[in-house]
Structures are given as structure tokens and as C-alpha cells.
Design goal:
single chain, two-stranded antiparallel sheet, 22 helices, 633 residues, two-stranded antiparallel ribbon
Length: 633
């Protein structure tokens, strides 16, 4: 402005905002003693009379206005050019203030001169572009430094960062920058939006442990929060410098790809062991935090894409395809991290636990457990697993303790479904492979103490399958996991040529009383038949059959009639009421259960015929079976 004023004085030109009144007759003559409004300096002569009324004066005035506008364009452009480096180092808010002020001045000059100020616009755009480039370089360097020093531990999320994430997800990503600018310009006033934000911020001074996006909570590290902040800053740049929106899309893609590639190198490839963080090892906790950070970025990418699309012309929307590719890259990275959990369990199983198979002898374990069981039945609920299977179960439980705290439920189910699938297929194959390797070494004469062979006895085979089933039951009992239908038992049964289901059905009778007494049942039944105390009642509809044993005769007619008359009364008595009798015959229910649970009772025609054959009776008798009393007889 000073330069324009000096130029006007040197050229003896005075600009008039208001034309003199119509009553003045000679505007071209002024008294020499009058002072002009321009208040000239001592070394500059006073300007002549302004030319405002004559056509020639109007032409001179428009020429002077155009010349002054051009001078202003050149002066401001040169000033911005000289301060290019300094302007690239200012903050975003300061750059936005410079942009808004310079653009408003440019529009006013274009209005006065009637021509576009291309020179000034180009210089201003170059200033903003240099600012974006310098800011992007600083962001890339800061992100690399943060990732190299990252120890991959969870950090807290402040209320301001969470509020920024919420604004981004609700489509108001640039509101925070507007508020900061207004605060700097002291033009906030009684802005209700600013008051609400200040109140909500002051009421949420406590830090949050998790970041929340669309109702999902993520446990993140510091470098991930820094990446999100940089992306949101670039979105704000695209909103305020819309002519640079195409450049900003490329910057956002570069930042996202840098974080993805660098985190892959540091965690999946164990680069953090040799980085500035100097981690001793990469464990499941580090992997869990990585997948949480990837989930946060994947959750915010659709909102970033929508915010950038609003600033781009429709013809340039194809640039957003790069963001879609980045999202796919993040999903692939997340898939590799989830598979890494399976690799950790796989490494433990194949390298640390598999050598224990050679020291396992299921035949010997079956004999030892049978000797210590004292007649109790060994099942999958009380069986003790071998060191190999116990190691798989304990290591999987330890991983579950770590991941259940860090991963959400859907990710936890996904991870352990993969682990269960691996264990289900790997355990039988390791047993079979170890047996085959021992057999080949034995045939070559190189057998050792650690040679393993599949069990040969039925008890050993049963023991092996029961231990695998116990391991699978223990894994399915973990909280928050999806139960897995393990098929390892069926594979081993097929390999060992044994079927526990069929054997269980053959060994377990239909009558629970028989299960209680086990193998001693037949002896008791034989003793009761010898003493004449065994009776079987078979109820098929309304037809009842009576079989009892005395001295081999059928009994007299009176006894039969007496028994037939009392059968209804006896059937309705309580099962707990017992009647003393020297030749007692038990009354059974339709399920074949004894009222006192002391005798084996047939259930169906097969067991009835068996009891009849043992008692030496014919199959033709068809009378009710009752408990015979001595006084009635």
C-alpha cells in the first residue's frame, strides 16, 4: 500500500472517491495555497488537480487505477515470493489466515481493475503448494521416527483426539480447524458451537483407554494416533485449499502406505528387535496391538474417502481408487497378522512339543491308569493327557489369556477358530508321522529310546483317543471362543481300527442298574436265579408275562389265581415299599428299572429271553410277574 501511494504521488495522480458536486463550475483550477488530501511528503511536490469530470480525465483515472492495481499485484507477488521459505514453515492456521487475506485482497483488486490477477493467484497457489509439500515431508519423517521408536504398547486416547475421530466419522472433519482459526482471529464471539465444544472438552478431561470408531473400540499405539492426526490434517488442507485437493489425495495415500509397510517390517518381520525400540522379542501382545491399529485405520478410511471426495471435482474422483487399494492392503496385512497367531502355536507344537511324542507309550499309560483306577472307569473328563497334548492345551490357554484382553470378540473367535483347525489336523498327523519315522529307523537298526509306535492293545488305543478328546474338550471350554467340532478322534479311530462309540454301546447295557454293578451283574443274576429270587416282568401294552422259578414246577392253580387277583394292587404300590419274601419276584416298570435298583432287569424281549434261558424256563408263559408273599401263599 505504501508503494502504491508513493507511485501515485510521483506520477502526480490523485484518486477521488466522490466526484465534486454538480454546482462547481471550474474543478480544474485550485487555489495554490490549498492543501490536498494526500498530505504529500516534503520531498514530493503536491499533485495537480484531479481529473474527474472531463472524458480525458476519466480515461487518465482508469489508466492510473489499472497501473496501481498492476503495481499492487507485482508488489504482493514479490513479497510472497521472497517469504516462500518462511511461509512453508508456518502452522496450518497461519497459512490459512495468509491464504484467506491474500485471496480477499486479490479479489478486490480484480474488481477494481476488471482483470484477473493471474500473477498474484499463481504466487499464492505456489505458496500453498510449498506449504503442503513441506508439511508432508515433515509428516513422513515424524511418522518414520515414531514407528522406529514404537515399543508397541497401548497408549491412552485423549478427549480431544476422540472428539476429532467422532467429527471425522460424522462428516464434520474440518470443524475443529475452523474453530481454531476463529479463536486466533478473535472472531469466535458467542459461537454456540464453540461453547458446546469447550464444555464437552472440559467435562472429558480424563483420558480414554480405547479409541472408538462407529461404536467399536480399539486399543492403539501412539504411532497410529499420529497417523490419524496427520491424515485429518491433510483432509483439512484439501478443504481449505481446494485447488490442491488432488495433491492432498496423493499425500494421504503415501502416509497410509508408509505406516502399513513400516509396521509390517517392524512386527511381522521382527524389525523392531533391531530398531530404535530394541525389543527383545515379538510376542502375541504386539501382534494383537498391530491388528487393532489396522482395524482403526480400516474403520476410518471410508470417512476419509468421503471427505476428500467432497473437495474433488467429479472428473477427478478416479483418484480415490488409490484409497480403495490401500484399504485392501491393510486388510491383507491384518490377515497376515491373524495367521501369525497360528504360526506361533504351530512353531511351539512342531518344534518344542513334538519331540515329546517319542517318550509317550499309550499301552503303558493304559496299564498304569488301570492299575491305579481301582475299578473306576477312565473317561475323557478324568483322563490325564500325555506331555505332548498337555503342552498344546496349556500354551493355547496362555495365548487366550493375552488375546482375550486385547482383541474384540469377533477377532478372538476368528483367531482361535484358525488355531483349533490347525491343532485338529496337526495332532493326528504328528502321531502318524512319528510312528512311521520310528518304524523306518527300527527297520534300519537305528532305533532309540525315543521311538514312538501307535498303541497295539485295545486299552492303549482307547487311551490315546480319550486323551485327544480330553484336549479338545479343554480347548472348547475357553471363554469367548467358537466351539470347534474336532475330527482328530475320528481320524485316530480309523487309523487304529477302533470305534469307541460302538464299544461303548456294547459295554454299556440298556439298564442303568447293570452299569452300576458292571461286570459283576451276571454273577449276581445267576445267584438270584439259584435262590429262586429272580423275576422278570415284561409289559407290552395290556399283556404281561410272568416268569418265576421255584422247584421247576409251574405252581398250583390256587397260587396262580391268588397272584392274578393281587397283581393290580401290587402294580400300584410305591417302588420304595419292599415286601419280604423268601422267593421274592421284583416288580419292574416299563423301562426295565428295578424299584430298588438291586437287580438287573430286562428291557425288551431280548433281555427277557436271556433271563428265561438262564432260569431254565420255557418261553410260553404269559402271566403277570408279582412279588409273592409267604402268608398269601
Amino acid at each position: 500500500a505504501v508503494g502504491v501511494q508513493k507511485f501515485l504521488r510521483e506520477e502526480a495522480i490523485m484518486l477521488m472517491d466522490v466526484v465534486s458536486e454538480a454546482g462547481s463550475t471550474d474543478t480544474s483550477k485550485l487555489d495554490g495555497n490549498e492543501e490536498v488530501e494526500a498530505t504529500p511528503t516534503s520531498d514530493v511536490p503536491p499533485p495537480p488537480t484531479p481529473l474527474a469530470t472531463t472524458p480525458r480525465g476519466s480515461s487518465i483515472e482508469s489508466t492510473a487505477l489499472s497501473a496501481s492495481s498492476e503495481l499492487a499485484h507485482k508488489s504482493i507477488s514479490e513479497l510472497l515470493r521472497l517469504r516462500k521459505d518462511s511461509h512453508s514453515l508456518i502452522t496450518f492456521d497461519e497459512m490459512k489466515l495468509l491464504w484467506d487475506t491474500s485471496l480477499a485482497f486479490t479479489l478486490q483488486l480484480e474488481k477494481y481493475s476488471g482483470r484477473k490477477a493471474y500473477n498474484l493467484r499463481g504466487t499464492l497457489l505456489a505458496q500453498a503448494k510449498a506449504f503442503v509439500e513441506r508439511k508432508h515431508e515433515a509428516n513422513m519423517a515424524s511418522l518414520v521416527a515414531a514407528l522406529d521408536g514404537e515399543r508397541w504398547t497401548q497408549c491412552d486416547v485423549t478427549a480431544e483426539r476422540q472428539a476429532a475421530l467422532t467429527r471425522l466419522c460424522s462428516g464434520r472433519a474440518v470443524l475443529s480447524t475452523n474453530k481454531i482459526t476463529n479463536r486466533r482471529g478473535n472472531s469466535t464471539g458467542n459461537d454456540p458451537t464453540n461453547i458446546t465444544t469447550t464444555t464437552s472438552t472440559s467435562s472429558k478431561k480424563n483420558k480414554m483407554s480405547d479409541a472408538e470408531v462407529e461404536g467399536k473400540r480399539y486399543k492403539v499405539v501412539w504411532s497410529c494416533l499420529l497417523l490419524v492426526e496427520m491424515v485429518m490434517s491433510n483432509v483439512a488442507c484439501a478443504a481449505h485449499f481446494q485447488t490442491l485437493a488432488t495433491n492432498v489425495v496423493g499425500k494421504v495415500v503415501e502416509l497410509l502406505r508408509l505406516f502399513n509397510s513400516r509396521s509390517t517390517h517392524l512386527v511381522l518381520m521382527a524389525g523392531a528387535i533391531h530398531s530404535a525400540a530394541r525389543l527383545k522379542s515379538i510376542n502375541a501382545k504386539h501382534l494383537a496391538l498391530v491388528t487393532q491399529c489396522l482395524g482403526l485405520v480400516i474403520g476410518t478410511l471410508p470417512h476419509v474417502r468421503a471427505a476428500l471426495m467432497a473437495q474433488l471435482p467429479s472428473k477427478q474422483h478416479t483418484l480415490l481408487v488409490d484409497l480403495d487399494r490401500v484399504k485392501k492392503e491393510y486388510a491383507d496385512h491384518n490377515e497376515k497378522v491373524l495367521s501369525k497367531f497360528v504360526s506361533i502355536i504351530g512353531g511351539i507344537v512342531e518344534h518344542a512339543l513334538a519331540p515329546r511324542i517319542g517318550k509317550t507309550d499309550f499301552d503303558a499309560r493304559a496299564k498304569k491308569s488301570a492299575a491305579a483306577a481301582d475299578g473306576s472307569i477312565v473317561t475323557a473328563a478324568n483322563v490325564v493327557c500325555c506331555p505332548f497334548l498337555e503342552g498344546i492345551s496349556s500354551n493355547t490357554k496362555k495365548m487366550h489369556q493375552v488375546l482375550s484382553v486385547l482383541l474384540p470378540e469377533e477377532h478372538l473367535q476368528d483367531v482361535f477358530s484358525r488355531i483349533f483347525a490347525y491343532v485338529d489336523s496337526k495332532v493326528p498327523s504328528l502321531f502318524i508321522t512319528a510312528s512311521a519315522a520310528s518304524a523306518s529307523e527300527g527297520s534300519g537298526g537305528a532305533g532309540g529310546n525315543n521311538s514312538f509306535s501307535l498303541p497295539q492293545t485295545d486299552d492303549g488305543k482307547r487311551r490315546m483317543v480319550l486323551e485327544v478328546e480330553a484336549m479338545s474338550n479343554a480347548l472348547n471350554r475357553l471363554s469367548g471362543v467358537q466351539p470347534w467340532d474336532f475330527s482328530a478322534m475320528k481320524v485316530l479311530e480309523k487309523k487304529l481300527d477302533i470305534n469307541l462309540d460302538t464299544e461303548g454301546k456294547e459295554e454299556q447295557p440298556d439298564d442303568p442298574a447293570k452299569e452300576a454293578f458292571g461286570n459283576k451283574e451276571d454273577a449276581k443274576a445267576e445267584d438270584s436265579l439259584m435262590n429262586g429270587e429272580d423275576g422278570v416282568k415284561e409289559n407290552n401294552g395290556d399283556k404281561t408275562h410272568e416268569r418265576y422259578e421255584g422247584d421247576g414246577s409251574d405252581g398250583d392253580a390256587e397260587t396262580k389265581e391268588s397272584l392274578t387277583e393281587n397283581v393290580n394292587d401290587v402294580d400300584n404300590t410305591n417302588a420304595d415299599n419292599t415286601v419280604s419274601s423268601s422267593a421274592a419276584v421284583e416288580i419292574t416298570n416299563n423301562n426295565g428299572l428295578s424299584s430298588e435298583g438291586e437287580q438287573n432287569v430286562c428291557n425288551g424281549e431280548k433281555d427277557s429271553s436271556t433271563a428265561t434261558e438262564q432260569a431254565g424256563l420255557s418261553e410260553d408263559r404269559s402271566e403277570p410277574c408279582v412279588r409273592e408273599e409267604e402268608d398269601e401263599t
